């Protein structure tokens, strides 16, 4: 009886939260192809205006990488009507904050203002799209900024190159094989015309989604959107190239020497399917079960109980075309990378052959329910999720229904998906080690 009551309570809790968190939105298209999404929330006097462009590092020429990330920086340089160096001053002097970020799949810009400054936010984003100033001084300035970013975050950061090394070994044909920050040599040799051509191709209204979320008057917002964005000329339709990766059937072994570390790290990475698939969501469950935090199976076993690792963890790298499940560990004392891999494989075999317990299953459901609530707890988070689900998933209503997909995952599915993707012959094993001192005899 206790077990039944607990199950009923869990079901009611999950269903109740999902209903309470339903996100209302309105969407429509401008004549130039720009998609517009509006979400009204008057609980706080703030508003977010954001634009997500369907361009990331995977859209680059292999001989000219880093352009998508470069534009994340370059398009804050100024516009026809915003003088160079004035962008951030305008935002902060009007009580706002703004930022941008780039992935392999998309580039995202946003402003958060007091609700009485929505028109300013919309005007600034329309300026970024319609009137950017792309000149040599801006290119040279941002080239220096990006080189410093690469030095501090990647080249001179302990373990800073793990992701790029994993990607270049996991992908042979797909543009995911290079890092988002790209090649400094490619940026150095790129011409001003190269940058202008990239902007013309990808920064078009029909390759973007505009989201307004927060406290605003809807009819007034629509009028401003029409005034500022409708005059922007529609771009040529883009044909996205499809890249095929052959299945990994033998363990890929690689070694990388990092001069910034003293303790070696072992990495085991598995290629996973598109984040849009059901299997990818099941793998999210598996990742959380095995390696999310100090209560996960791997951490409790390898770090707490057996004490053969200083740290163990994982990164789930979900992408539009493929993903990666990247496990990593720091061996302790005389223990080796092989010791860690053995322990990891034992836990994976368990999940492949046995059903996880009811207790662990309900724990996973609660974890993902909390994540769902947290992702939609601010207007900034809602704005980004609305843009993401529309542009990358092709289903904006997933902001309300994706949690139901996670609810429907069964313990049996978890076992079968682990069998399908998480086998030793389907992974990369990377020994990420300190640089060998060749000066010693």
Structure in words:
The chain is an alpha+beta fold. The protein folds into 2 domains: 21-229, Cytochrome Bc1 Complex, Chain A, domain 1; 252-434, 2-Layer Sandwich (Cytochrome Bc1 Complex, Chain A, domain 1). The chain is 45% helix and 19% strand. It contains 16 helices and 11 strands. It has helices at residues 2-20, 67-74, 87-93, 118-130, 136-155, 162-170, 184-189, 192-202, 218-229, 278-291, 297-305, 337-353, 358-375, 379-393, 398-408, 411-421, and strands spanning 26-29, 35-40, 46-53, 97-102, 107-114, 208-214, 252-258, 265-273, 309-317, 322-331, 427-434. The strands form 2 sheets. The protein has a 6-stranded mixed beta sheet, sandwiched between helices. The chain has a 5-stranded mixed beta sheet with strand order 7-11-8-10-9, with helices on both faces. A hairpin with a 4-residue loop joins strand 9 (309-317) and strand 10. Helix 1 (2-20) packs parallel to helix 13. The radius of gyration is 24 Å and the shape is globular. The N and C termini lie far apart (71 Å).
Output the keywords.
45% helix, disordered N terminus, 441 residues, six-stranded mixed beta sheet, five-stranded mixed beta sheet, Cytochrome Bc1 Complex, Chain A, domain 1, alpha+beta, globular
Kindly summarize this structure in a few lines.
With 441 residues, this protein is α+β, with helices and mostly antiparallel strands. The chain has helices at 2-20, 67-74, 87-93, 118-130, 136-155, 162-170, 184-189, 192-202, 218-229, 278-291, 297-305, 337-353, 358-375, 379-393, 398-408, 411-421, and strands spanning 26-29, 35-40, 46-53, 97-102, 107-114, 208-214, 252-258, 265-273, 309-317, 322-331, 427-434. A hairpin with a 4-residue loop joins strand 4 and strand 5.
């Amino acid at each position: 009886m206790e077990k039944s009551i607990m199950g009923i309570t869990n079901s009611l809790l999950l269903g109740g939260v999902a209903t309470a968190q339903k996100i209302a939105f309105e969407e429509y298209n401008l004549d130039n192809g720009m998609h517009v999404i509006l979400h009204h929330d008057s609980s706080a006097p703030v508003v977010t205006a954001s634009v997500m462009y369907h361009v990331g590092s995977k859209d680059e020429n292999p001989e000219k990488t880093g352009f998508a990330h470069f534009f994340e920086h370059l398009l804050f340089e100024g516009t026809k009507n915003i003088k160079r160096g004035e962008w951030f001053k305008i935002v902060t002097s009007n009580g706002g904050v703004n930022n941008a970020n780039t992935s392999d799949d998309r580039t995202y810009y946003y402003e958060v203002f007091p609700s009485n400054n929505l028109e300013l936010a919309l005007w600034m984003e329309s300026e970024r799209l319609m009137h950017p100033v792309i000149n040599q001084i801006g290119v040279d300035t941002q080239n220096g900024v990006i080189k410093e970013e690469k030095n501090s975050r990647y080249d001179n950061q302990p373990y800073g190159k793990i992701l790029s090394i994993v990607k270049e070994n996991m992908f042979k044909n797909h543009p995911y094989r290079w890092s988002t920050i790209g090649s400094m040599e490619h940026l150095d040799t790129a011409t001003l015309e190269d940058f202008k051509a990239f902007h013309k191709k990808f920064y078009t209204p029909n390759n973007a989604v505009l989201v307004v979320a927060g406290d605003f008057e809807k009819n007034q917002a629509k009028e401003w959107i029409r005034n500022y964005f409708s005059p922007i000329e529609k771009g040529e339709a883009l044909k996205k190239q499809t890249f095929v990766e052959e299945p990994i059937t033998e363990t890929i072994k690689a070694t990388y020497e990092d001069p910034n570390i003293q303790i070696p790290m072992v990495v085991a990475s598995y290629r996973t399917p598109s984040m849009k698939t059901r299997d990818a969501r099941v793998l999210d469950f598996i990742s959380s079960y095995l390696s999310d935090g100090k209560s996960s199976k791997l951490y409790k076993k390898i770090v707490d109980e057996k004490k053969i690792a200083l740290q163990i963890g994982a990164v789930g790298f979900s992408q539009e075309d493929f993903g990666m499940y990247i496990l990593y560990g720091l061996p302790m004392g005389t223990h080796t990378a092989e010791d860690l891999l053995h322990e990891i494989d034992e836990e994976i075999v368990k999940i492949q052959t046995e059903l996880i317990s009811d207790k662990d299953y309900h724990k996973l459901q609660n974890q993902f329910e909390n994540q769902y609530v947290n992702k939609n707890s601010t207007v900034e988070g809602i704005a980004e999720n609305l843009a993401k689900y529309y542009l990358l998933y092709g289903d904006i209503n997933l902001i309300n229904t994706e949690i139901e997909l996670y609810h429907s995952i069964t313990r049996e599915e978890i076992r079968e998906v682990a069998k399908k993707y998480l086998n030793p012959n389907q992974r990369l094993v990377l020994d990420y080690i300190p640089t060998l001192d060749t000066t010693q005899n």
